[in-house]
Amino acid sequence: MNFPFYIARRYLFSKKSTNAINIISGISVLGVAVATMALVVTLSVFNGFSDLVASFFTDFDPQLKIVPVEGKTAPADDPVLSEIKAMPEIYVATECVEDQALAVYNGRQAMVIIKGVEDNFDSLTHIREKLDGDGTFELHAADIQYGILGRQVIDVLGIGYYYFPLPLKVYAPRREGQLDMSDPADGFIEDELYSPGVVFEIKQSKYDRNYILTSIGFARRLFDQQGMLSSLELRLKQGSDFEAVKERIKQVAGDKYQVMDRYEQQEDTFRIMKIEKLIAYIFLTFILMVACFNIIGSLSMLIIDKKDDVVTLRNLGASDRQITQIFLFEGRLISAIGAIIGIALGLLLCWIQQTYGIISLGSSEGSFVVNAYPVSVHPLDVIIIFLTVLAVGFLAVWYPVHYFSRRLLK
Q1: How many Å apart are CA 245 and CA 252, to the nearest integer?
Q2: Are strands 198-200 and 131-133 parallel, antiparallel or unpaired?
Q3: If 0-12 CB within 10 Å is exposed, 13-18 middle and 19+ buried, where does residue 187 land?
Q4: CA atoms within 13 A on the CB side of 401
Q5: Is the pTM of this model over 0.70?
Q6: Residue 43: closest CA among 275, 236, 280, 237
Q7: How far apart are CA 336 and CA 89, in angstroms?
């Protein structure tokens, strides 16, 4: 057995001549444990919110989205896109045309994003699970073009119910030709949408307040994009190796198209959440550093208390380096024990929150998307926290131990 570690362990758990040293050692362990527990719980809550947001995006965003690198649109019959659609791992491939337009209903207007999709869009995403109303997912019937509005779009336009008796007027600027100032309306393409009796609610303002789903034929006529697409959206067959297929698609797409998964499609949102999580981690690490000052006080008093033991150890043949290592191991043991206790308590609190939802988001149920704070424990975070606590604790005790040891061993 390592001699300095053996002595350090005996010093940590044995009764000291001064009871205050035992109390300060306990406070040191408790301080490290509380700071560690705070790290585990806080980072897990950030993970919970991130996973929650990701689940909402999943209901609208495809697994993979291919967009042109230059310009808004690309030819739908591009051989590169045809090759991608023909891959055996592709389960659903949907062409989309998406752009901004002006929606007008009964004198009220709103800027919206018209997203024209093919009829298999409900197989591409989980949009059917987010529909509300007594109708069904339908984009067109004969010459009638349907529009499925976001929940908040209905509120902005003042429609108020799923079936609107008047057609929804949609305007988009003409792509070609000069604007006749004597007839400004001639500079816009006008078309009409009707309701299939449903609206969608993703519970994300980005979609619910801005998007209208319709057929790709309507969008191509409205935006004068015949034979073009804004994006090709894909869903893979179950059991496919997602990362491997994505890399193959990237190789086929080359520099002409950008291939994005769900997280890359929402890169700005997840980047902000990652930055917030990093800032929380940094601030809590500073709190951990403050908690480690208790270890310094505990070791200082222990070194003074064991002055006679140091003389005995030197007479028995222990080197100055071994004696210094005894107190270094003492500080490291306090950090390690505090880290283990803190992680255990943090995981316990996370489990209680996941199971029972003790801490709610609001006083009234149903006010938020979820009633309680979401929690998700990531094993990598736990490993990082444990290593952080050990590193901060080891660094905190290194200088004071060497300083007091030098004075004691003179």
Answers
A1: 11
A2: antiparallel
A3: middle
A4: 23
A5: yes
A6: 280
A7: 48
Phi, psi (deg, nearest 5) at residue 100: -85, 150
Strands 148-150 and 74-75, how do they pair?
unpaired
Whether residue 96 contacts residue 196, with contact meaning beta carbons closer than 8 Å, is answered with no
Q: Which helix (H) or strand (E) holds 222?
A: helix 216-222
**Rounded distance, CA 298 to CA 25, Å?**
5
CB 73 within 8 A of CB 228: yes
338: left (phi > 0), else alpha (psi -120 to 50), else beta? Answer: alpha
Q: Residue 130 has what DSSP assignment?
A: G
Q: In terms of Cα–Cα distance, which of 201, 202, 233, 207 is closest to 55?
A: 202
Q: What angle do CA 10, 15, 19 make, to 5 degrees?
A: 140
Which residues are 64's β-sheet partners? 234, 261
* Dihedral sign (CA 287, 292, 294, 296): negative
CA-based R_g, the chain, Å = 32
Q: How far apart are CA 99 and CA 104, in angstroms?
A: 16
What's at 183, amino acid-wise?
D
Low-confidence winner among 18-27, 131-140, 383-392 (lowest mean pLDDT): 18-27
Q: Per residue, what are the HEC states of 6-24?
A: HHHHHHHHCCCCCHHHHHH
For residue 126, the 8-state DSSP code is S
Measured between alpha carbons, how far is residue 307 from residues 17, 165, 175, 402, 404 in Å? 12, 92, 88, 15, 11
Instruction: In whole angstroms, give the CA distance from residue 250 to residue 80.
Output: 11
Residue with the two structure tokens 């917030």: 276
CA–CA separation, 124 vs 39, rounded Å? 38
Strand partners, 311: none
Residue-wise pLDDT for 222-270, tens only, equals 999 999 999 999 999 999 999 999 999 999 999 999 999 988 898 888 8
8-state DSSP, 224: T
- Per the DSSP assignment, residues forming a β-bridge with 75 are 228
How many CA atoms within 13 Å lie on the side-chain side of 240? 19
What tens digit of pLDDT does each residue of 109-144 get?
999 999 999 999 999 998 998 899 888 899 998 889
Under DSSP, is residue 359 helix (H, G, I), strand (E, B) or coil?
coil
